[in-house]
Amino acid sequence: MTHDVTTTGFFRELARFLSWRTLPSLLLMALALELLARASPFLVGKYVHQPFLRSVRRPELLAEPEYTDREVTFFVNERGARGSLSRRGAPRIAILGSSTSADSQLRQDESMGERIGARLGGVPVDNYASDGSFHRETALVLEELAGSGERYEVAIVMTEFHEEPASDHERRAFRYWGQWAPRDGWIQADWLLSARIEVQVRREPRVDGILKAFGLIGPSEQEGYWERVRGERERRLSGGIPYSDAVPSFDEDRVERIREAARRIFVPARALADEVLFLCQPIAYDEDELEGVSERWCRLRPAPDDPNKVRSNRSMALEVREKNRLMAEVAIEMGVRVFDLDAGIRPHLKETDDLFYDRWHFLPRGADLAGRLVADELLRVVPERIRARILLESRARRSP
Amino acid sequence: MLFNTFEFWIFLLGVLLLVHLLPHRGQNRVLLVASYLFYAAWDWRFLFLLFLSTVVDFVAAHFAGPSRSTRTRKGAVAISVVVNLGILGVFKYYDFFVTGLCELVGAGSTEVWLLGVVLPVGISFYTFQSIGYTVDVYRERLPCQRSFLDFSLYVSFFPQLVAGPIERAERLLPQIEKPRRVTAEGLESGAWLIAWGLFKKVFIADALAHPVDAVFATGDPTGPCVYLALVAFAVQIYCDFSGYTDIARGVSRWLGFELMENFDRPYVAASPAEFWRRWHISLSTWLRDYLYVPLGGNRRGRASTYRNLFLTMVLGGLWHGARLNFLLWGLYHGLLLALQRAFLGKAEPGATRRGRVVGVVVTFHLTLLGWLLFRVETMQQLGRMVRGLAFSWEFSGAATRILITMVPLVVPLLVVEIVQGRARTSEIFPRPGWPARAFVFGLLLSAVLLLNRGASTPFLYFQF
Asked: Are residues B209 and B64 in the same domain?
């Protein structure tokens, strides 16, 4: 055999591509990239309406140290909500809010939305809540939905007030809800995503845009959001953490911000549904618990009175309950019904530890309990006209 | 290491630089090491299966050549078939048949009998390729391979290792043995194949997977939803699998190899038989040459022909996996082929233009029913889908949304395939001048980069 001296001529042939056409060709390819990058936000839509999303929640992405053994896949329907495909004429319930409402880490059959629907005899429930979102995302989704002409018999809202810059939330709402968000091109401006974002976010040419385009890094607004805080679990287990029961102050400004956030949510909610039910966020904390202890919260947070301490369970619970109370006040003022799910669940906390995995996100048993409580409340409080439609659908679903 | 991940392209860049800097024997050594590394990236523990299959067929072929006695030759082929099918049987089918057997005899819990092993990627492809070589040596269609290195590369060549095409030894081995040349035209057409393959996989198939999965996951789908989901799945599986093949062929061209075409616009087939001449060509011709023909083909009368068709298609169905739905899918296609032969004989329904159009429409819809059997995971799911198709023909918003999702994804595919059909070429964008080609090439790659729906999803045929 005399083949050993033969090479393929690859580099010589490759050099043949280097002609006067090379640079114009590369420019044309860059132009194509830029054009598509600019057109892509319009091609893939904005906000809520990303139909048929298949979402996989992987435990390693989550910060919760106590609940790491499952990967959950779920689908959304043609309206971009977690739930079944639409049936003509059927009454529908919408759920809006943050991660607890989104049934984060629960399979569809275990979810609160599914349990509510089942308790009502098979009424379709569209869950628009999204993991990792707060009151601003909830408001954006509600505004988008109400503006699109969607109508529901009942809208259930359970969301958390959270103080972060508005732009982060607007971008996050797009990213999380979109999922199929077009990635940045080299020159593409982020402001093309949304007129609202145009005001908030200015684009800069940057290296991370290139890295993102190749999928080497995720969208920057997710960075640090999902990541575990290094060493947190070890610190917690070591028992060497000083806790504080102090609650961040609810001064006049903050109270007004919470009330304003609630108003921004309830106005579109009322346009979306005949009946709106606001749920007070439940948390696994009762007053008999020891003071100065923190465990199983999503992550340790610095105490408001001393940056060297972290917030205790009591500190977290009292703040959440105060926010619940303020939002519920606004709800009642605006004619929105309120159901204190937190109070409904509290008596069951002594029976079992299997309701929450981190004190405010449901385990299957917690979602089932919440679903039953909410469905029963709905049947109790919604007007006869709506209840009749739900029960009619329920009977129709049961008959062959 | 998926073709649609960044790691693969870094890996390929390294392989390209090394391969093209070395002389021929060195190239083969690098390609062999690269192929084993590529496979080990999935699961290094299964490398021994690849090696076992390689060793067994290398040795068996030495005893299957014409210089040996008939008994020795037949024994060598038998050993090759038994070992390769044995590997397949243990790793792919054992649990399926044990479960079925236990259910049949009412043995209760099957847990203790199951192996529960993960299916090694590409096992169905390389075992068939290996068996094909030994049988070809036995049939004296090619000489026995003397170089273990070359033969190992033939079995493990990484672009087609995990999802084909199932190459014939008479095509691929000479390309391994002789020095290879790379031309500028080959590099360019390879780049087009890769870009088009990625576009089909990432832009079309992965996006269509979402409505398809949503409909198949729903409890009470309506008829229009099921029908559109089946159309979407037909396009999805075609773009997914042919996308992989295109990338494999493009990468191979960059390395100086020419792999066979695995698809020839299958949905313009005017009959089930024509469909199988256009779909997964490397498997269908393998089944024809190494199973259908040895069984007797159509030479021993009608009953025997029908039996052979059914057997071939059932085994072709089971080749995809150890599940009841694949068995049914194979049976269904066996039935279609038998019916075609019974009613049309050897005539094809494409003689007239009208006949061809009707044939294409009918065949496409028959194929859709086949895809329903192929796609379902449980018989309950099959029942739900059939019930929706048969009894629930209300046009809901979901169906409209599936249609809206599908149209922009399918149009580019249709345009390219129509152009290819008219120009009678497999080139992706054959005619226009360089500016248009550069722009469209940029668009294809941009769509892959900008409009993908998140994380890389594995190719469907990796599971087979």
From this structure: no
Provide the number of structural domains found in chain B. Answer: 2
Number of separate domains in chain A: 1
A6 reaches B (C-beta below 8 A): yes
Of B181, B218, B449, the CB nearest to A213: B449
CA distance B205 to B253: 24
**Cβ-contact B322, B350 below 8 angstroms:** no
Question: With contacts defined as CB-CB under 8 Å, which chain A residues touch B451?
Answer: 36, 40, 43-44, 180, 182
Which pLDDT does position A392 carry in this prediction? 66
CATH number at residue A136: 3.40.50.1110
Q: Distance from A235 to chain B by nearest Cα, in Å? A: 33
Which secondary-structure segment (H or E) carries A125? Answer: strand A125-127
Average pLDDT over chain A, rounded to an integer: 73
Which of B358, B166, B350 minimizes the C-alpha distance to B274? Answer: B350
Residue A113 included in any domain: yes
- Write out the residue range of the structural domain in which residue A143 sits: 45-181+265-290+317-398
How many H helices and E strands in chain B?
20, 0
Whether the model clears a pTM of 0.90, i.e. scores above it, the answer is no
pLDDT > 70 in chain B, percent: 93
Q: Is B281 among the domain residues?
A: no
Instruction: Give the distance from residue A28's alpha carbon to the nearest chain B alpha carbon, in angstroms.
Output: 5
Question: Residue B67 sits in which domain range?
Answer: 6-180
Q: Does any domain span residue B16?
A: yes
A318-372 pLDDT, tens per residue? 999 999 999 999 999 999 999 999 999 988 887 877 888 777 888 889 999 999 9
